Amino acid sequence: MNNVKSSTLFKIIIVLYLFIIIFPFFWVTVTSFRPEAEIWSANALKLRGATYTSANYVNLFKTTILNSLKNSLIISTITTVYVTMIASLCAYSIARLEFKFKKLLTVIILATSMFPQMIVIGPIYRVFVKLGWTNSYYISLPYSMITLPIAVFILITHFSQIPKEMEESAIMDGSSKINTFFKIILPLAAPGIFTSAIMTFIGAWNEFLLSLTLNTNEAWRTATVSISFLRGQFEIFWGQVTAATVVVTIPTLIIVILFQRQIVSGITSGALKE
Amino acid sequence: MAGITFIKVSKIYDNGYEAVKYINLEIRDGEFMVLVGPSGCGKSTTLRMIAGLESVSSGELYIGGELMNNVDPRDRNIAMVFQNYALYPHMTVYDNMAFGLKLKKVDKKEIDRRIKEVSKTLDIDTQLNKKPKELSGGQRQRVALGRAIVRNPQVFLMDEPLSNLDAKLRVQMRAELIRLHQELKTTFVYVTHDQTEAMTMGTRICVMKDGIIQQVATPEEIYNKPDNLFVAGFIGSPQMNFYRGKLVEEESKYYLIGDNGEYGNFKFSIEVENKENLKSHIGRDLIFGVRPEHIKLTEEDGLKAKVMVTELLGSEVHVHIHVQDEIHTIKTDASTHIKSGDIVNVKPYSNKIHLFDPETQNALR
After folding, report:
1. Is residue A58 part of a domain?
2. CB atoms B86 and A165 under 8 Å
3. Chain B closest CA to A171's CA: distance in Å?
4. The whole model's pTM is what?
5. What is the overall mean pLDDT for chain A?
6. Is residue A83, in this structure, part of any structural domain at all?
7. Nearest to A187 among B83, B90, B164 (CB)
8. Residues in Cβ contact with B27 at an 8 Å cutoff, skipping those fewer than 6 apart
9. How many CB pairs under 8 A join A and B?
């Protein structure tokens, strides 16, 4: 009886949570198809608008948004690739090797993700100006500050769940440490790698402050920054902003839908007798 | 094929825990050596030192006459079967078996030939394209064995490989392992905490406790001539019964006397091989042990005791009696009519009594 009650409660909480998460996106999508005038009219808060239009999207694509999307895509992909590579090596070392100050190191990695960006952005800007790296894809480098600690933490959990016997078995089979890592450990940690890669990609894709500060030239702007520039002297083009929000969300949505099977599927099942 | 020699080998972990203490052990070429003992006795550590998965803290470890202390596991040509099989879940059965051979750069045709041959003898030749998760527990166990066999190693190490199987399958796999050993004629080192497995499978058994080897001998010898109290109690099921008593000499014959509280005293005659050795123990306290199958129910004087429980096992009955504040077991045939609460008279066979020094716990012979 208790079980039934708690599972019903659980479902209600999930539905509420989903509503809270989905409603803003739904509202943004609905708004993006309304004429600019209607957004501010009495109809604004009605679920069904009086008229629908694609004008917001047409106007949006007249701006530099496509170039910004390209920048976002390239920068996020570079970030994802190198962060995932570094994170998997780092996480594997922490999960499996014994060395001094391991705990301290882990805490430091976690702590770096907690620095407010506002504090570090000054020094990073100075360094970038000195090196001549502003307005370039080098912006991927400081992106590791936001994404790497999370990726490392996701992967530590996944690596430590892989049974030690799996590695020992490979070593007994004559495999070297590095071969074991690539042939046995990485395939087994695939769900974790996918998860951390997606988190990294989304983190990089959504980044705003670094991009705003370091890539000031319009040609190098990322999508998130471009959205913030959708304004005239006296107004914000809410129709275009909402349309851009929808457009910017689509790639991450596609990625998650494509890879959710890899994230969820437990491919380690059957390896060991539990 | 190779023998294994431990000379004064110890294993001390980084946290200071001494898992194996100064052991000397000779595992002969082609032998089926079973390391047995309760959990934490150091048997798995010993096995893992042979594998090279644990370093040797001190002493010397030889495999096939070569010092192995600092040799990498992958250069030892040893195969190991793990308790939980440790199959690679993302590879098919075939690839699992081929993994080690591919790393050794064995010719593809040769790999194929060996896998086909081994999978046939293990009866998994129809499963080669499946992934481990599609297999039953017994089949996974066979794949783990097959993966070891195809490599043609000089030593097989097995760490409780049957403990995850159900009882019926375990008996079946036990026989299969014995057959495999006879066919391959390679050195097997097998770790278990199950004394039945040790007795049935081992050419010799090494009993360990607290990182120290208690006795190394053939199953018969371990069973009939245990070196100390621990070995006597650990090997044999139900376990050996122990009594506290005194050794006395009357008319140049030896007797054991003791008392069983409210049920009075007892006195057993005992035949000993070497009377001279026991002379010094006359009149002193000692512990004597008798296996459940070496005690008979008698009408005449013997040890009087109260029956606590009887267990019918089909072919025989185990009678549990209360002796000197402990529960002792007697094996008797199924036709007995003894019930709980009865008072029975029991007597051990006079030539089947084991004597132990209560201080050193060693056997007195």
Report:
1. no
2. yes
3. 6
4. 0.81
5. 87
6. yes
7. B90
8. B3, B4, B5, B33, B187, B189
9. 84
Q: A166 with A188: CB under 8 angstroms?
A: yes
Q: Which of B74, B101, B106 is the best residue to mutate to test the A interface, defined by the most A CB atoms within 10 Å of its own CB?
A: B74
Q: Which residue has the tokens 């008319």?
A: B251
| CB pair distance less than 8 Å for B89 and A169 | no
3-class secondary structure, B259 = strand
Domains of chain B: 4-234 (3.40.50.300), 241-359 (2.40.50.140)
Query: Looking at residues A129-136, what average pLDDT do you find?
Result: 94
Per-residue burial over A242-262, b if 16 or more Cβ lie within 10 Å, else e, is bbbbbbbeebeeebeeebeee
What's the confidence (pLDDT) of residue B24? Answer: 95
A141 inside domain? yes
> How far apart are alpha carbons A91 and A152 in whole angstroms?
5
Convert the pLDDT of each residue in B173-196 to its tens digit: 899 899 999 999 999 999 999 999
Q: Give me the residues of chain B with pLDDT under 70, please.
A: 1
What whole-number distance in Å separates Cα of residue A109 and Cα of residue B249?
A: 78
pLDDT score at A2: 62
Alpha-carbon distances, residue A10 vs A16, A17, A23 (angstroms): 10, 10, 20
- Give the amino acid at B41: C
Inter-chain contact B90–A267, Cβ cutoff 8 Å? Answer: yes
Tell me which chain A residues have a C-beta less than 8 angstroms from the C-beta of B85.
271-273
- Residues in A 73-102 with any Cβ partner in B closer than 8 A: 98
Please tell me the predicted confidence (pLDDT) of residue A265: 54
The residue among B90, B61, B85 whose CA lies nearest residue B2 is B61
In a domain, A143, yes or no: yes
Range of the domain at A207: 65-221
> Is the pLDDT assigned to residue A269 strictly greater than 50?
no
Q: What is the mean pLDDT of residues A175-202?
A: 89
pLDDT at position A271:
46
User: Which residues face B321 on adjacent strands?
Assistant: B307, B328
Domains in chain A, number: 1
Give B137 to chain A, closest Cα distance, Å: 7
For residue A63, give the nearest of A230, A202, A201 by alpha carbon. A230
**A272 contacts in chain B (CB < 8 Å):** 84-87
A68-125 per-position pLDDT tens digit: 999 999 999 999 999 999 999 999 999 988 888 989 999 998 888 888 888 889 999 9
Closest residue in A to B50 (Cα–Cα): A172
> Does residue A1 belong to the interface with chain B, where contact is any CB pair within 8 Å?
no
Chain B stretch 195-254, residues whose beta carbon is closer than 8 A to a beta carbon of chain A: none
B102 touches A: beta carbon within 8 Å: no
**Two structure tokens written together for B215:** 């006795």
Report pLDDT for A184: 92
| Cβ atoms B345, B299 nearer than 8 A | yes
B contact residues 276-305, partner A, Cβ 8 Å cutoff? none
pLDDT mean over A165-178: 91
Please tell me if residue A174 touches chain B, with a CB cutoff of 8 Å. yes
pLDDT score recorded for residue A179: 92
Q: What is the DSSP letter of B239?
A: P
CATH of the domain at A97: 1.10.3720.10
